[in-house]
Design a protein that fits this description.
mainly alpha, about 60% helix
């Protein structure tokens, strides 16, 4: 067998990515529009840039997976075969067989299948072919070549290779037999090129050839002894195996007491959704025995779902999902109104594990369950932020989450265990608030304002960003951002102040004057200090208007940064007074943000704010008033009025910091301190 270094060197000589891609693109140009578009997407050469060439992950953005998967499903069989022939002409027939047999459903790896509902497996099939194209880009393989070299190509794509090789074995004939022999020799370490890997285990278990199942059982599982890693990697593949192979593996575990190994228990936790520890061998064997009964006896399965105890109902539902996830979702939905809370809970637990759109829709009903444990499990099962499910937020989920948030305690609370001793849940208003943010959908961000106090800081920061990005603000939005400007979290305060400083001006409002150097943002100061030769560019980037000379700059960063920046609408007197009250606090970032906002008022309003602050009985607001005068004076705004107010303050009993601020106001030539917000206006 080749060493890794020898294999990499040999593969490097065989690979020609640029020539391969050019040849495939030329061939795609001769095909019909749908096939051509999908081919370019898979090659990451789509004209609409749906998949950037630099993106390291496969289709990372939610929505594009489902969209492109639907395009592939809509192709006719002949169109799809023409796509396979163009990409990998020597494996086209095998790719078609593999594409058709990918019937595992759900957003998580698991044993649930939807053979009669291809719409729920389209995304997974599209991701599979995308991974195959990525891994084999630059090669011209046939199935025998792939079986020999799979161990050396890509560790992260061995599962995808296993599906292709299983389809080749099931196709039969001389190529299928040769693939089988290569995999067996690779597992034994006798093949001159091939090596052991997940592709061997998966291909032999997924294919419908019993000799392959026996080989895995005897040569790997039973021979593993104390090699827990080998046993675990094998058993973790079993959930994708042929249905009969899976049944055989369950019987093997019981017959040979493999549950005594922690790797078996860990794999079984993944299959069945339990939380067993390493001492649960008897429990594992008992569950496997019941699962085998339900898999083989449909009447026993139906009876358990209709009237059995909670755990039996769960295992019966699980066994139904093993054959048809959609049927399992419908059966579980029928238990959501059951008077037994434990039966309702296991139904929700199963729906969450199925991960298909119908199951997610049923979970919305469970959010209103009177028992908080059922509602919390339903909330945890909603995949609102998942990129692997082809569905939009179910209808009514936002409102149901609002109701759950209203009845949740103010702080996280641990709930009693249900059904299983280790099934201990926590009702946390912060987690519900996060789900509410993900479920917003097309609703305006203002829908989240009533719940801001129940959201955790990162969620409040996200809400502030969403509110600030709106083209039009209403009174509630402005009030919410003003409140968030005084939030306990510095990150939330910064986001709110940033939003308040970028609100669009009303029509006809005077443009902001050019910013003096002293008032540039800190990133501009840093750039000027580090790269003084680029001072002009950095200053232009920070200016209010877009410089014509830089608007068409070839540098995309410069071009993007020179986009015209809107200026904030004037604060109302009530809003200014609200901000002034925040200056009773000592947080430096809060004070800088508030002072920047107050200074961005027109001169009369800014001086009125300073007067109110100077009359405050507390020291912190008075110091804020002096700092505001300093900002105004040192940016040449009503300098005489600022000096007069500063001199008047000298007659009062002052602390050393206040005295230093007065000296700075009256001293000529001083630069103002850095502010985090919009730059001061002058009266037009």
């Amino acid at each position: 067998m080749l060493t890794d270094e020898q294999a990499r060197a040999a593969l490097a000589k065989l690979r020609d990515v640029e020539g391969w891609t050019t040849q495939r693109l030329a061939a795609l140009a001769k095909l019909g529009a749908p096939v051509r578009e999908l081919g370019r997407i898979l090659l990451r050469r789509d004209p609409e840039r749906k998949i950037p060439d630099t993106e390291p992950r496969w289709l990372p953005r939610r929505g594009l997976r489902g969209e492109n998967a639907t395009l592939l499903d809509r192709l006719s069989e002949e169109e799809r075969r023409s796509l396979w022939r163009t990409l990998f002409p020597r494996m086209a027939h095998t790719l078609e067989r593999a594409w058709r047999r990918l019937y595992h459903s759900g957003s998580q790896r698991g044993p649930f299948r939807s053979p009669l509902h291809p719409e729920f497996t389209s995304t997974r099939r599209f991701e599979w072919i995308g991974s195959v194209v990525d891994a084999l880009r630059g090669y011209d393989p046939d199935v025998e070549w792939l079986a020999a070299w799979a161990a050396h190509l890509s560790y992260h794509h061995q599962d995808q290779f296993g599906i292709v090789l299983a389809a080749a074995i099931d196709a039969g004939g001389e190529p299928g037999e040769r693939v089988y022999q290569i995999l067996v020799e690779s597992a034994r370490g006798t093949h001159e090129i091939g090596g052991m890997g997940r592709h061997v285990i998966l291909a032999l278990l997924v294919a419908s050839r019993p000799e392959g199942w026996t080989f895995i059982e005897t040569t790997i599982l039973l021979a593993a002894q104390r090699e827990e890693g080998l046993r675990l990697s094998t058993l973790r593949t079993v959930d994708e195996a042929h249905p009969e192979a899976f049944r055989r593996m369950l019987r093997l575990i019981g017959d040979h007491d493999l549950a005594r190994f922690s790797s078996t228990i860990q794999a079984a936790n993944g299959w069945f959704g339990y939380r067993w520890d390493s001492t649960a061998a008897k429990l594992v064997n008992a569950v496997i025995e019941r699962v085998l009964l339900f898999l083989d006896d449909e009447r026993a399965r139906t009876a358990a779902i209709q009237s059995g105890p909670a755990e039996s109902a769960y295992l019966a539902l699980w066994s139904t999902g093993f054959e048809d996830a959609v049927a399992a979702a419908e059966s579980a939905a029928g238990l959501l109104a059951d008077p037994d809370v434990e039966r309702r809970f296991v139904a929700v637990h199963l729906l969450g594990r199925l991960g298909i759109a119908p199951a997610q829709s049923h979970l919305v009903r469970a959010l209103d369950d009177p028992d908080p444990r059922v509602a919390v499990r339903a909330r945890a099962s909603l995949r609102l932020d998942s990129a692997y499910i082809d569905w939009r937020p179910p209808e009514g989920v936002f409102e149901a989450l609002e109701r759950l948030l209203l009845r949740a305690p103010a702080k996280a609370k641990t709930l009693p265990a249900i059904v299983w001793p280790r099934m201990i849940l926590t009702i946390d208003p912060h987690e519900i608030g996060l789900a509410l943010l993900h479920a917003l959908g097309a609703r305006p961000p203002a829908a989240l304002i009533p719940h801001l106090e129940r959201l955790r800081p990162d969620c409040r920061q996200g809400v502030a960003r969403l509110l600030g990005a709106q083209a039009q603000w209403d009174a509630a939005t402005r009030a919410a951002l003003l409140n968030l400007a005084g939030d306990k979290s510095p990150a939330v305060r910064r986001e709110a102040v940033k939003a308040l400083g970028r609100f669009d001006a009303t029509p006809g409002e005077a443009k902001r004057p050019e910013r003096p150097l002293a008032w540039q943002p800190i990133w501009v100061w840093w750039s000027v200090l580090v790269m003084p030769e680029n001072t002009e560019v950095h200053m232009a980037l920070a200016s209010a208007d877009r410089p014509p000379a830089l608007a068409d700059d070839e540098n995309p960063t410069v071009h993007k940064a020179t986009a015209k920046e809107p200026i904030r609408d004037h604060l109302t007197p009530a809003e200014a007074e609200h901000l002034e009250r925040l200056l009773t606090r000592k947080s430096s970032d809060l004070r800088l943000g508030v002072l920047g906002l107050l200074a961005s008022q027109d001169d009369d309003a800014a001086l009125a704010s300073a007067d109110r602050l100077l009359k405050a009985p507390e020291r912190e607001p008075r110091l804020g008033g002096l700092e505001l005068l300093r900002v105004l004076a040192q940016t040449d705004r009503r300098v005489a009025d600022c000096h007069a107010r500063a001199r008047a303050c000298r007659d009062q009993k002052l602390g050393p910091e206040e005295q230093r601020t007065i000296d700075a106001i009256l001293a000529p030539g001083r630069k103002p301190p850095y502010m985090t917000t919009p730059w001061p206006r002058t009266n037009a």
